[in-house]
Amino acid sequence: MYSFNMRAEQAFDPKRHVEKVLGITGEGDVAIACWEPRQTSPYHCHPRATEIYFRFEGGGQMRTSSETIDIVPGSFVVHPPGELHEYINAARRTLRFRVRYGEAMAGRTKEWPNNPNWKPRLEDIEYFVNNPAG
Question: Where are the domains of the chain?
């Protein structure tokens, strides 16, 4: 059994969102993610893993290739394997819980426009050439 206190585990960084893996079990992991105002994730997917988010506090928007939805406290979002998604935080700190499970947790980043230091990895470029829709 795993049990976590979200408030005790939280950690924020003004330079980038903080994602801390709290436990690994079976074919997955559980993590806490902490976001400062206006931070944005890369537009990415997990080709061989499902990713599930539960918004504990704060909020913003989740974008996929087909829609953008508002995320508020209590929101629960499931991304199936291969679905491109990006999280855009709103104007206040946000705390969320994440679960990933599947054959491999690795993500593939398609773009990260608000991170001037981001450079695509060769494996990401190759993945999106072979899988244009993500």
Answer: 6-130
